[in-house]
Amino acid sequence: MGGQQAYLEAMEHRRAVARPATDEGYRASVDRAVGLLAGRTRCRLAEAHRHLLQLAADQNRDVADIAAGVIGMLDVPEPADGRSPPATVLPAPGRSSGAGARPGEPWVGVVQAVLDLLPGHCALLTPLRDRRGGLADLVYAAVTPEASAPDGRRGSWLVGARLREQFPESAAGERWAVYERVLDTGEPAELGPFTIGEGRFTVRAHRLGSALFTTWVCHGSGGGESDRIAGTEQLGNLGWGEWDLVSGDVRWSAQLYRIYERDPALGPLPTAETEALTVPEDAPLRVAAAEAFARGERVDLTCRVRVNGRIKYLRTVADATRDRAGRPLRVYGIVQDVTAREAGARRLADVEQQLAEQRRSLHAEHELAARLQHIILPIPERPVELPGVKVVVRYLPAGQENLVGGDWYHAAALRDGSVLLAVGDVAGHGTLAATTMAQLRYSLRALAVTTTDPAELLGHLNRITCDLDAERPETAATAVVARYEPLLRRLTWAQAGHPPPLLSRGGRTEPLARPAGPMLGVVEDARYECAELRLALGDLLLFYTDGLVEHRYRGLDDGLNAVIRTVDEAVAAAPRQPLAELVSRLRQANPDDDTCILAVRPTTGTTQDLRGYLRSR
């Protein structure tokens, strides 16, 4: 079984070069696609996974196939437009730089995207160092929307401000030394309670990358129902408002000011200004909502508004207290910022459309590759009678329709009365693999005019493949070429990184010991060796490509052993017509790769053991 081991080692190398197809790779591909989809559309991982499964179900395709399309389309840097946080990992803890992380650095954008969804008071502060390396100041780099400072600034308005400006007393006290110690050692600390103005605070500080992450709680602020309502508003990113149509009074909650990014000191926006913020294309929606409200209906409207140059999606649910005639007296409503949800849904739709376009393109390529393959690789329906041998060819396409491969065969009589047999496999799939397959197959046919030595033929094919690789990088192939001399019943064969033929003799099947020979297209001056074998009547020789033994759900050993069992069973079941029995059993397609099978049996020139079988088909 030394040939089998050599084959397994060669296939492991080829798998690493051409296409990973392990269970771990399968799962990793799906997980990678889910992560990319969730990160790009900013939806939850579970939602992205459900969407991936739904796409696979709708298109009746394997999830890994869909995942590959997502990875191919999304695994590229996303444009930095200021609104989409780049997928950059945080710097490793302990790697504190002298200048500190700046608010505009990509990883800070990731932190800000997380803080945007959190209630409470949190801030990421980046250190500014003096010439001696001491802590000179801390700069707000990312904050929660609820974070505030004594000068009235809140949320994103704090970004870029310095802590010494907001809390000058902290620089002279113990807190500053604690902040510096947390940055230098990485050990978290808790400070307080201490008094600032009229409030008492407790601060917790942690090192995050090269920055300081702080959270603080204000004690004795009243708490109770109002705090719970404010927390609910913050968590749901919604605010409430009331419009007294009799007195003209308008009240907004604090969160509604945050949604519209308006200073509370200015009071609520006038109705005319609020309507002016609406994106013109959504104006008909507001008109229809106003008409429904006039009819006494509750309004539930989602439309786009432009706030400080950015588009937000706001959902408004409004109702009114009315008089007996149905005229509104007081209007009250809830406004929720659903920008993240709507943007995520829109991105999912965009991704789905792009995937559909990609699929149409792949389908067109598949159709072209399939036609090309059928033209250049006709599969004979009947057995081929050649001098001293009978040959049956079967081609099993991959289970996935878009995986048209580069598997090929050759079986023809030579001018000296011998027979040339070959099978090969070009790495990859699609039009490129099919065209490369055609070049190798027709080159072998032409080269057989100059030499019939299998090793020399493989040497020529290797140089052709190397030339193709110079034009199209990563072009590689495997092949086995054999010459059969019927008078001597002698088979001379050579291989290039290809699985060895299987020989069935006396009811037992084994791989032939492989002569040396690397893959085609890897080493320019590669040398190939030949091996010889005397065939006897009753022998059965099986040439095949690796799709017959490789499978995503089993190892190479299991795949090869399964084929050997099938050959033994076929010969035992029909010793007089083993070829017919064998090809009828080897008809299950590999979902990941095409398979080409060339079954050969020595004859005396009078054996016609496949006619009945083929007529019945």
From TrEMBL:
Name of the protein in question: Serine phosphatase RsbU, regulator of sigma subunit
UniProt-listed Gene3D superfamilies: 2.10.70.100, PAS domain, PPM-type phosphatase domain, Winged helix-like DNA-binding domain superfamily/Winged helix DNA-binding domain
Database matches in SUPFAM superfamilies: PP2C-like, PYP-like sensor domain (PAS domain)
Domain ANTAR stretches: 10-71
A GO molecular-function annotation: RNA binding
Alphabetical UniProt keywords: Hydrolase
Ranges of residues in domain PAC: 297-350
Domain of life per record: Bacteria
Signal peptide: none
InterPro entries: ANTAR, Bact_Sigma-Reg, PAS-assoc_C, PAS-like_dom_sf, PPM-type-like_dom_sf, PPM-type_phosphatase-like_dom, WH-like_DNA-bd_sf
Organism (species): Actinoplanes nipponensis
Region annotated Disordered, chain positions: 79-103
Classification via Pfam families: ANTAR, SpoIIE
